[in-house]
Amino acid sequence: MPSQKKLKTSENTFETIEYLTESSSFIPKGLIISGYDFKVKEPPSDRPVRIYCDGIYDLFHFGHAKALEQAKKSFPDVYLMVGGVKVKRVMNEQERYQSVAHCKWVDQVIPDAPWTVTQEFIDKHQIDYVAHDAEPYQSTESGDVYAFAKAQGRFLPTQRTDGISTSDLITRIIRDYDAYLCRNIERGVSAKDLNISFLKEREIKTMKHIDNLKSQLITILLEHLATLEDSSHEFIRSFASRFGAKDIVVCIFILLCFIH
Q: What's the domain count of the chain?
C-alpha cells in the first residue's frame, strides 16, 4: 500500500495524499522517484495525467526535447503542458513558444508562465505534476522555486541530458566569435546588424583576404614542388640510363660530402 499524508488545501479542507512506492501500480516510466528528500503522490487513474513543465527554452535543443519526452512518457496517458518563462534571451518569446509548440511531445503551451508555481496556477490549469530536473532552482523571493510542488507531492523529477545545454551552445558561439562574424559578413550581413564597428568589419575582411592569399600561395607552391619533383625523377632516370646506377650512387655520395 502507498504511504499516506493529509495535506491542507484551503482554510478548512484537507486532502489525503497517497504517495508512490515501489509496489505502486503506476510507477513513472523511465524516471527515478526514490532517493530524494520529497515524495511523489499517486497519479489519477480515471483520466489523463496532467503534467506541467516550465523553462526558458532558449535555443531549443534536443536536451529540452528529451526532458519533455520523459514527462510525456512517464505515464500511459499524459496531457503535457509547457510554460515559457518570460525573460530576455537570444530568442524572443514568440520564437521560443513556437519552438516548444512544434515539439511532438507537447500538447499545450502556456505563455508568460510564472517563475514560481503557485496553488492558483496549479488550480487554474488542473496540474497533477510539475516535471523538471531535481536540482534546486533558487529565487530571491522564495528560495527553491519548486519547493511548493515538492511539498504537495506534485514534483516529478526528470533527468538532464549530458553534453548539451543552452549555456554550452552560447559558449561555443562566443569561443568562435570571429569565425561566425566572418561567415556572416561573407553572407552579406551588415556591420550594423552584427553590432560591430566599421573598423572591425574592415579588419575581418582584411584578415579573410590575407587568409585567401595564403591559401593561394600554398596551392601554387605545392603545384611547383610537384612539378620540380617530377622533373628531378625524370633527370635521375635519364642519368641512370646513360651512366648506370653505380655512377648515380657515387655522385650522390660526393654531393653529400660536399654539403657537409
A: 2
- Is residue 121 domain-shared with residue 226, that is, in the same domain? no
Angle at 187 between CA 182 and CA 191, to 5 degrees: 60
Same domain for 28 and 89: yes
> How many Å apart are CA 156 and CA 43, to the nearest integer?
11
* Residue 139 belongs to domain with CATH number: 3.40.50.620
Q: pTM for the whole thing?
A: 0.71
Which of 161, 154, 182 minimizes the C-alpha distance to 62? Answer: 161
pLDDT beyond 90 at 62 = yes
pLDDT of residue 36: 83
Q: DSSP E strands: which ranges in the chain?
A: 4-8, 14-18, 49-55, 78-85, 108-113, 129-133, 138-139, 143-144, 155-158
Of 45, 54, 109, the closest CA to residue 77 belongs to 45
Residues 76 and 8 in one domain: yes
pLDDT for the residue numbered 1: 41
pLDDT tens for 234-253 read 666 665 666 555 555 556 55
Domain of residue 36: give its range.
Answer: 4-161
Express each pLDDT in 75-117 by its tens digit.
999 999 999 876 778 899 999 999 999 999 999 999 989 888 9
Residues 142 and 44 in one domain: yes
Question: For residue 208, what is its C-alpha cell?
Answer: 579573410
Does 193 map to a domain? no
Q: Cα Rg for the chain, rounded, in angstroms?
A: 33
Which residue from 156, 149, 207 is spatially nearest to 178, judged by alpha carbons? 207
CA distance linking residue 7 with residue 18, whole number of Å: 10
> Has residue 180 been placed in a domain?
no
